[in-house]
Amino acid sequence: MKINSNLKDIKKELLRKSKHGSRFIDEKSLKEIDDFCEKYKKFLDKSKTEREAVKETLLLAQEFGFKEFDPDTKYEAGEKVYYVNKHKSIIFAVIGKNKTKNGIKIAAAHIDSPRLDLKPNPVYESNDMTLFKTHYYGGIKKYQWLAVPLAIHGKIFKKDGESIDVCIGEDESDPQFCISDLLPHLGKDRLKKTVDEAFLGEELNLLVGSRLLIGESDQQKESEEMGLAKLNTLKILNESYKITETDFLSAEIEIVPAFKTRDIGFDRSMIGGYGHDDRVCAYVSLMAILTCQDVSSTVLVVLSDKEEVGSDGNTGMNSSFLKYFVEDLAKQDGVEVRHVLSKSKCFSTDVSAAFDSNFSSYYEAGNSCFLNHGVVVSKYTGFGGKSGGSDASAEFMAEVRSLFDGNNILWQTGELGKVDAGGGGTVAKFIANLNLDVVDVGVPVLSMHSPFEVVSKIDVYSAFLATKSFFQKDV
Fold first, then answer.
1. Domains in the chain, ordered, with CATH?
2. Is 342 helix (H, G, I), strand (E, B) or coil?
3. Residue 460 gets which letter from DSSP?
4. Fewest CB within 10 A of the end CB: N or C in the chain?
5. pLDDT in tens, 150-178
6. Phi, psi at residue 62, to the nearest 5°?
7. By the 8 A CB rule, do 375 and 409 touch?
8. Contact 377, 410 (CB under 8 A)
9. Model's pTM, two decimal places?
C-alpha cells in the first residue's frame, strides 16, 4: 500500500481509531436499532432460564417456517430446521446451496446465566420463618443477591410423569421473594473480612413465608413439632401446584431477579436487565439466521446450556450433540463429518467486559471494548497466560476484518480486563476442539454476572448485523 506524504493522510491510513457509534449512525438507522431492541427486551423478560429460552427461541423460529429436524429426511437448499436437545439446548439450521460439502458456518451462544438454584431438600423453618436453601450457579458476587426482589422459575416432575411449570414473581399480582441482609448497625465486623469471608453461600436462604398454619386444637400440638410456618408454606404449595415436599427431589427450580428489562439513561441508549450474558448473543444470532436468505453454505445457530459452570453435561457445548447433528447433515450429502467440520467456521457469540470508568484500573484501555463502539471481536480468551481459552488464527482474523469492513459493520476488539486481573472463557474452545476456525464475537457488557447487567443498543444491533453478514457472505 502506498502511503501519501501528507500528515493527515498518514494518520488516516496508518492509525486505527475506534468509532463511537452514535457519531456514525443516522436517525433512520437509530430507529431500526431501537425497534430491534424493543423486541429483544421482551425476549429477555420471557427467557430467564435455559428452558424458557429454548421455548421462546423455538416459538420465534416456527413463525419463520422452521420445522423439526428429521435425520431420515433429505433436505434441499433453503429449508429450515431445528433440533431440541433435552429441552435445554437447541440448534437451528438453514440448508445452503452447497449444503455441507464445503463446510458450514456456525454461531454458538449459551442461554444459561448465573443464578441461584434450590437444593434438593430446600424447605426449612427457623424462628417461625419459612426459607428455601439455595446453591449458587456460576460466578456471582453473593452480596449482590441480598435485599433485591427475586422470582422463582422452573419445572417440577412428579413420580407419575406429570410436569409442572413454575413462574412466581413476574406478574404484578404475584408475590416476590428475597434474601435478607444484615443491617449496617450490626455488620461492622463484616467490613473487616474479605468479601468471600463476609458473604457465604450457605447464608443465601430465600425468605418465602412467615405465617403459621392454624389447625384444630388436637392437631395443633403435633403440627407445632413439625413447624407451623413450614407446614403453612407446604400447604399453599400443595393447593397451588399439587406437590409435596418430596417433589423437590425431581425439580429444577431457579431463583432469578424479578427485575423487568428497562431502558437505561436519559437518552435511552442502553438496556438494563438480567441475563444479557449470554442471551443477548443468543437473540442476535437467532435473528440473524431467521432473516438470512439464499445462503451458500449451510448455517447453524447452536444455543447451549451449562457454559457458566464449564459447558459440561449433555446440554453443554462440551457434549456431542452438535457433532451428532452435523454428522446427520453430512451423511445426507455423502461426506464424512470430520471433513465438514475441518472446513467450517464459527463465531462464538459471547459477551465481553465493557470498559468501566468506575473501575478503570482493572482494564487496559488500549485493548478494551467500549459501549456504543459496536460488536467486539476477541481473538483470544482465557486466564493469565491465555490458559483455558481459545485463540483464533491470524488467517481467520484477517477474514473477519475484511468481512466487517466490507459490510460497514461497526466493530472493535477487546480483552477481558488486564492480563493479571483475571480473565474468562467461552464455548469457543469446545468448538475449536472439533477442528473449526473459531473466534469470539459479541456484545460489550457492564456489570457482567450481576443481577442487572447493562448493554448498548447500538452494540446489540451491530452484533446482529455482524452475524448476519457472516451467514450471508462467503468467508
1. 7-113+274-472 (3.40.630.10), 115-257 (2.30.250.10)
2. helix
3. H
4. N
5. 999 999 999 999 999 999 999 999 999 99
6. -65, -30
7. yes
8. no
9. 0.94
